[in-house]
Amino acid sequence: MQRPFDDVTDLLVALALALSFLGALRHRVKRTSERLRAIAKLASDAIVVLNDRGEIVSWGAAAERLFGESAETAIGSTIWKRMPAGLEALYSRAFEDIVRGRITVPDAPTVISAVRADGTEFPAELSISTFTERRHTFVSVAFRDISERTRNERELRAAHDLSQAVLDAATEYSIIATDPSGRITVFNRGAERMLGYRADEVVGKESILLMHDRAEIAARALDLGEPPTADIVFIDASLNGEAREWTYVRRNNTRIPVLVTANVLTSADGAPRGFICIGHDLTGQRQAERRVAFANAAFQKAFNSAPVAIVLTRGDMSCLHANPEFRRLTGYSLEELRTMSMLDMVVPADEAELKRLVADFEPLIASERQVQVGEVHMRRRDGSAVLIEFHVSVILDEDNTPLLFVTHVEDVTAKREAEAAAQEAFDRNAEALVHLEDLNRAKAQFVSMVSHELRTPTTSVLGYTELIADGDLGPVTPEQRHALDAIQRNSLRLEQLLADLMEAARLELPRLNGNREHVDISEVVRHAATTMLPVVARRNQTMQIAVDPDAGIVLGDERRLEHVVSNLLTNAVKFTPEGGSIVIRAIREGSEAIISVQDSGIGIPEEEHTKVFERFYRSERKESAKVPGSGLGLSIVKAIAQNHGGDVTLASAVGEGTTISIRLPRVDLEHAAVGGGRERE
Amino acid sequence: MKKILVVEDEEDIRELVVFKLSSAGYEVTTAGDGEEGLIKARAVRPDLVLLDWMMPRLNGLDTAVAMRADPDLAAIPLIVLTAKSQERDIERGFSAGIDDYIVKPFSPKELLSRIEAVLARVRVTK
């Protein structure tokens, strides 16, 4: 922010130097010229007299000095080699015309280039006059060496050019000079740009007050007890220092803040020649200041409200600042922290780690993230320990020495504990997974074994039945043939059931997308129940068949649905003691057909109600209960029911029996009669 | 009279097959497992061997491999009896050189016609 001001000062110094140099130079040149003129009058003018042919007739001591040539060699020779341009070139007239007095030679001296005897040139001022003596006309030429004056003038011009260049180059600054009355004498390009006026509009015409806020001038004048004139700017500058902020009013009437450096310009003799004001537009600076203020406020807000603990430390890890969250985490106040080092907070065992984090900042500079991450144990003010994760970033000075460490601190005590717990849980799960894989292998072996073991007896049953039926073992009576048909039919069905069970068991998820046809639930249930009747009779059980003929039509696989019902009935028979009763129902309920099988069996304890639908669950239990079966039954039932868009529910109490219900969505809704329980035995 | 060797560990099935084949006019020899089957095969030189797949001691596959490795037995046609779940394993049996297979449970009539078909094929090739 100091830059513009420095520039102004530098510029002012340069300009003041240039101007004062200019003044001094003018003064010196003037003095020199006067002195020279005076001297020349006396001695330094080389008076050379020429005859009417241009031959030198008089060559005085001054001429000898000036041209470096003695009168002996000069007299008699023509003047022309000493002034190669000749007089004609000067006056556009022949020498003769001058001699004959045909032109009037001007009184004012003329500057020519003269040549010394040694060949060097020098600027000379010459005055010519003619006189006649004894009827001969002579031309008197007075040469005066003006080398020094020319040099002075050249310097003067250079100085002037320099100050003009300074004025022109300073486009970012308004440079306005005035005469002692305040009238503008210089109005540079920077002023034109800043204020919107052109130099020719204001120079020599307007007062410096044109650019000022009159109210501001008036107020300042009042403070100073002076009249509100242009002088106020300079009086103020002389009293209160060179630089002050003024409001400039631009041509379009907008106002801008300008830092004005005002100075008095003095002549070489010390008399005030006017004033100079160099202005720097502060608009950008004001905006920058506002931006900085905003950024600072935003930083403060972020720092103070961050839910993350942040601490700023010096290169030696002493605390500089800490946000409220850091104070909360550590329990220290800001005043306490400012007397502490981070090393005071870390447990001794972890000091080395913390030092490593901040010492090893080289990779930090190289890395894109510029953050070092580490973990250390810290002690709070109350002595309790906390495991913290450090995120250290560094701010370096020009020598790449750490100036400031910005450290984010996170309490990871709970996080690390949770991670450890998660890892432990993961390990446990991995063990469980291994166990499951073992189970899966066991299942595959079981399926293979069961498949073989169950098929072998079926092979015998079917084979021998065929032998008898084909008459290979003797004649068959019609009654015997009827019985053999039943054996054959049911053996084949047994084989089919077996195949289904194996298929379902072999697959991870039962793929039972069999046929899709309209299945009359009442038919399916009645058929399955009738088939089961001989078994029920053999066990002295009773079976009530309550089937609503309008129980509903279901979209699905008739064979599998019958399989489901048979399975439920087989279970009911198996788990119901001899003499017990079984009820099978098929009813319609809203948009569903419901099949339920109720037995008066041993029942299922409540904790097993969901488990019985898991595959293989019951196999072990039933083996231990010495009840034959694969244990696949209910899982298959459930899979088939769900495959038909329905589900299975179970109601049971130990010793009271079990009711298993299958709900299946009906597809005969458009023909649905009023739902009813027209049960029938 | 064609000679058939039945290698089957399940007695009921063995008897069933023996009865059906004998009735059809074949001279039938039996073995209870693969090892015995190999011994009987060398002794009897049957026209066809019926081989159960899953047997104790030497199973069907190993018996088939052993027969094919024995120059005296290598040419004898082999029909394997197998459960449905082992159907996939049968591919290994074909690469070991079996001629056909029948899935249990099978119909004795079907077994008979398969045997006749294999023997007919052997006759044609010979």
What does this 3D model show about the protein?
The complex is a heterodimer of chains A (681) and B (126). With 681 residues, chain A is an alpha+beta fold. In chain A, 46% of the residues lie in helices and 24% in strands. Chain A contains 22 helices and 22 strands. In chain A, the strands form 5 sheets. In chain A, strands 2-1-5-4-3 form a 5-stranded antiparallel beta sheet. Chain A has a 5-stranded antiparallel beta sheet with strand order 7-6-10-9-8. A 5-stranded antiparallel beta sheet of chain A has the order 12-11-15-14-13. In chain A, helix 9 crosses helix 10. The longest helix of chain A is centred in the middle third of the chain and has 57 residues, at 413-469. The two termini of chain A are 105 Å apart. The relative contact order of chain A is 0.05. Mean pLDDT of chain A is 79; it is low at 1-5, 38-42, 508-513, 618-624, 626-631 and 672-681. Chain B is of the alpha/beta class and 126 residues long. Chain B has helices spanning 11-23, 34-44, 60-69, 90-95, 108-125; strands at 3-7, 27-31, 48-52, 78-83, 100-104. A 5-stranded parallel beta sheet of chain B has the order 2-1-3-4-5, with helices on both faces. The longest helix of chain B is centred in the C-terminal third of the chain and has 18 residues, at 108-125. The mean pLDDT of chain B is 87. The interface between A and B is medium-sized, with 22 and 19 residues.
Please tell me what the overall shape of chain A is.
rod-shaped
Helix fraction of chain A, binned, reads: 40-55%
Distance between the termini of chain A: 105 Å
| Assembly of the depicted chains | heterodimer
Computed over alpha carbons, the radius of gyration of chain A is 61 Å
Structural class of chain B: alpha/beta
SS field, number of helical segments of chain B: 5
C-alpha end-to-end distance of chain B? 17 Å
Low-confidence stretches of chain B: none
Question: What does the overall shape of chain B look like?
Answer: globular
In terms of structural class, how would the helical and strand content of chain A be classed? alpha+beta
